[in-house]
Design brief:
CATH superfamily of the largest domain: Vaccinia Virus protein VP39
Shape: globular
Number of domains: 3
Strand content: 15-25%
Number of strands: 17
CATH architecture of the largest domain: 3-Layer(aba) Sandwich
Bound molecules: S-adenosylmethionine
Helix content: 25-40%
Radius of gyration: 25 Å
Oligomer: single chain
């Protein structure tokens, strides 16, 4: 573990948290946190009454209890292993299932070592280690570096600025040609103004303002670079890219400077029990002359990767138009990238006529899907005289350029 910086009280506290005494305090803090149902005042008094911790130690242990709860509930991270976390580090951490997919690709391409230049709390590092790779992880922040060393004891942790040419040259010298440099640049500046509601620093969209900047990553003098970028990243030519989604949200654009997949662009859909990869190809999607008995909402990672035509062809479906995010067919889909809706009827005429028709068929509550058209769900609900509700679904989209409105029912796959 890197030595604590004696002038940094936060780093000293971080090292205490990683010690057996600090870990015992975290266990006690998790107990009182749960007993106090997450009330920080009650939990703080209970912890101080039952231990001899200083106020700073008690506060640090309780913060770990709160962050571990958040890690489990919001990020799917197993925090029972005594992970040490920071608020910003948790926001930036890769979800374990996504990190596992990346680590397996890197392992399968013949690497034995990974140099993780932006280790953070070590979620990617841990996945590389679990895949059987040996890992050197670099982290410049003293607190995060201490937590990284605690969270990933099998990694060699280097507390340094990875962009320091002397540091970098020494680390790259240890790699073989099949080994991989991994970079997950920080996209939120910890000192930037915070969002009032979430207390999170806003993410930076310009890849040149990431730390390290994208141009620095792209110029690294090593053959195999893997990087994690923002979902909206414009992956450069010559790099393979995978847009990864979890729970129908694109969580990252993963890029690789060498071939890791059959296609240069693909979508990766990560669910609890499987990873589905949909490779983009150059074929255009067949356009349906009319909507069929079913509409299928396509995962946004497939759209970002340009893989909708390939998915349509593989599933025997047709598109609704070149820009549409829907497919249509005659049966429900059994694919993690598709959510199916049974078409009840196509609503005709003006909003007033559609409103009357909905009333006539007894629909008073619905959810609105209108990603392909310029419309706000709240306004559509008002125009159609509906309340928000799960009973029915009204889909506004385009069929070969013409706006259409469809009344549909959500398909519940039998498990
Ligand atoms: C997005 S986080 C990495 C998250 C990590 N992949 C995970 O899943 O836990 C980026 C980390 O890189 C660190 N960092 C940013 N610039 C750095 C640099 N020049 N050298 C070393 N570390 C750096 C930040 O302090 C931050 O902890």
């Amino acid at each position: 573990m890197p030595a604590p910086d004696p002038v940094e009280p936060a780093a000293v506290l971080a090292h205490w948290l990683a010690s057996p005494a600090g870990q015992d305090a975290c266990v006690a803090a998790e107990r009182v946190w749960s007993d106090a149902a997450g009330d920080p005042l009650r939990a703080g008094s209970a912890l101080r009454a039952s231990t001899a911790l200083s106020p700073a130690e008690a506060a640090a242990a309780l913060e770990q209890a709160a962050l571990r709860q958040q890690a489990r509930e919001r990020h799917g991270i197993d925090a029972d292993t005594g992970l040490l976390l920071t608020r910003d580090g948790l926001e930036a951490a890769t979800r374990p299932r996504v990190a596992r997919h990346r680590a397996e690709l890197v392992r399968a391409s013949g690497a034995a070592r990974v140099l993780d230049l932006t280790g953070g709390l070590g979620l990617d590092t841990a996945a590389f280690l679990a895949a059987g790779l040996s890992v050197t992880a670099v982290e410049r922040d003293p607190v995060v570096a201490a937590f990284l060393a605690h969270n990933c004891p099998a990694a060699q942790v280097v507390r340094a600025d990875a962009t320091d040419p002397a540091v970098l040259a020494g680390l790259l010298a240890d790699l073989g040609p099949a080994d991989v440099v991994f970079v997950d640049p920080a996209r939120r500046d910890p000192s930037a103004p915070r969002d009032l509601g979430t207390a999170r620093a806003r993410p930076e969209r310009d890849p040149e303002l990431w730390s390290p900047p994208w141009s620095w990553v792209a110029a690294l003098p090593h053959a195999r670079i893997a990087a994690k970028a923002a979902p909206a990243f414009a992956a450069p030519d010559g790099w393979q890219a995978q847009w990864v989604s979890v729970d129908r949200t694109v969580v990252e654009c993963a890029v690789y400077s060498w071939p890791v997949a059959d296609a240069d662009r693909s979508a990766v859909i990560v669910t609890d029990d499987r990873v589905a990869v949909i490779a983009a190809d150059a074929i255009p999607a067949a356009i349906a002359p009319a909507i069929g008995g079913w509409l299928h909402e396509v995962d946004p990672a497939v759209l970002r990767a340009g893989a909708l035509p390939a998915l349509a062809a593989a599933e025997g479906m047709q598109g609704l138009g070149p820009e549409s995010s829907w497919l249509t067919g005659e049966s429900p889909a059994d694919h993690p990238a598709l959510r199916s809706f049974r078409v009840v009827e196509r609503l005709q005429g003006s909003a007033r006529e559609q409103r009357a028709r909905l009333r006539a068929v007894g629909v008073s509550r619905a959810s609105i899907k209108c990603r392909d058209v310029r419309a706000q769900p709240g306004q559509v609900l008002r125009d159609l005289g509906l309340a928000e509700g799960p009973d029915a679904v009204v889909i506004l989209t385009r069929l070969d350029g013409t706006a259409i409105t469809v009344l549909a029912e959500r398909y519940q796959a039998r498990s």
